[in-house]
Amino acid sequence: MLSEKQQRMVALFEKHVGAELAGDLDTTMATMCDDPHLNHVPTMAGGVGQAGVRAFYRDHLVGKFFPPDVKMAGVSRTVGEDRVVEELFITFTHTTVIDWLLPGVAPTGKPVEMAVAVVVGFRDDKISHEHIYWDQAGVLVQIGLLDPKGLPVTGAESARKVVDPKLPARVF
Question: CATH for 4-163?
Answer without folding.
Answer: 3.10.450.50
